[in-house]
Amino acid sequence: MAAEAQRGADARRAVVCRCAWSRRVDPAAADAVAAAARAAGWTVRVINDLCEAAARRAEWWVEWLREGGGLIVACRPRAVRALAAHTLEGAPVAVRCVDLVGADPQEAAQRAGVDAVPTTSTEELPASDAPPDGWLPWFPVIDSARCTACGQCVEFCLFGVYERRDGRVHVVRPANCKPHCPACARICPQVAIIFPKHTEPPFEGAEITDEETERARALRRQLEWIGRGDLRAALAERRRLAASRGAPSRPDTGAGP
Questions:
Q1: Residue 21 and residue 48 in contact, taking contact as beta carbons nearer than 8 Å
Q2: Are both 85 and 184 inside the same structural domain?
Q3: What's the confidence (pLDDT) of residue 228?
Q4: Mean of the pLDDT values across residues 41-50?
Q5: Which of 92, 121, 13 is nearest to 60 (CA)?
Q6: Given a cut of 50, is residue 222 above it in pLDDT?
Q7: I need a labelling partner for 75 at 20 to 30 A (CA). Which of 49, 85, 243, 253 fits?
Q8: Is 128 contained in some domain?
Q9: What average pLDDT does this structure show over 223-234?
Q10: 90 close to 84: Cβ distance less than 8 angstroms
């Protein structure tokens, strides 16, 4: 598996995300990278939304990763790596990531290491702001290098998004997540929860450069939320109340475990 992963990382093939459902990246920048890579002889697949592919574990995406991955041109690399890990349920995969957040078309090609070429978009943007079934793929993924499986997110979430098993925390029901709610990420003591469609660092996947500061902020958020009481007791009470009234569930989108 390790040898296959390394071959994939070295291969001249790429997945380019246009982030159609939230526009975290400029579609024109994504198109510029795709055109430049194709002109350089790369095999390129342009997709509307990487989060959607990961949540649904799209067959082509699973196969691409299992074959060893390659270059992924999308949003924050930490978020992209977590999306890949979520897709393969933690199996190792070597991918090289290019961050298009804030990049214009010329800069995007430079970040990808390919020569920019004149291009016009050949990929049609969807007419709506969500996939045809209406589900916006807003959900968390976990930075396994940071997660200690403390379980606070499992206890906090009212929608059954998380489960803890085999000594790890898993995102098992991404479609149950409440759109635009990053509350679980805010109380994570390890700053290990990423919402790729969020816009606020570090919750959107930005690299964490000041560990002490970020963990201190996480602790302050916890204390503010519980009114300086006991966090675990507060979380247990929150879950008890949710169970007593019945936690809402989302429509089945095929984005479960």
A1: yes
A2: no
A3: 47
A4: 94
A5: 13
A6: yes
A7: 253
A8: no
A9: 58
A10: no
The predicted structure's pLDDT at residue 223: 66
- Distance (Å, rounded) from C-alpha 91 to C-alpha 70? 15
43-47, strands of its sheet edge to edge: 43-47, 13-17, 71-74, 96-99
Q: How many residues does the chain have?
A: 257
Q: How far is CA 247 from the centre of its chain?
A: 24
Judgement on whether residues 156 and 57 belong to the same structural domain of the protein: no
- Nearest-Å Rg of the Cα atoms of the chain is 19
Please give the sequence-ordered ranges of beta strands (E in DSSP) within the chain, or none if there are none: 13-17, 43-47, 71-74, 96-99, 141-142, 162-165, 168-171, 193-194
CB of 52 within 8 A of CB of 85?
no
Task: Give the closest residue to 182 by CA, choosing from 196, 169, 168.
Answer: 196
Domain of 48, in residue numbers: 2-112
Summarize the confidence of residues 224-240 as an average pLDDT.
59
| pLDDT tens string 129-164 | 667 788 899 999 999 999 999 999 998 898 999 999
Cβ count within 10 A of residue 21 = 20
Q: What is the mean pLDDT of the chain?
A: 82
Mean pLDDT of 59-74: 94
Q: Are residues 17 and 84 in the same domain?
A: yes
How many whole angstroms from its chain centre is CA 179?
Answer: 14
- Quick one: 26 and 98 in the same domain? yes
Q: Within a 10 A sphere around the Cβ of 47, how many other Cβ atoms?
A: 19
19, 75 Cβ separation under 8 angstroms? yes
Tokens of 222: 């916890």
As beta bridge partners, residue 142 has 193
Dist CA 163 CA 144 (whole Å): 14
pLDDT at 67 over 80: yes
User: Above 50 in pLDDT, residue 1?
Assistant: no
Taking the C-alpha atoms of residue 201 and residue 132, their distance in angstroms, rounded to an integer, is 29
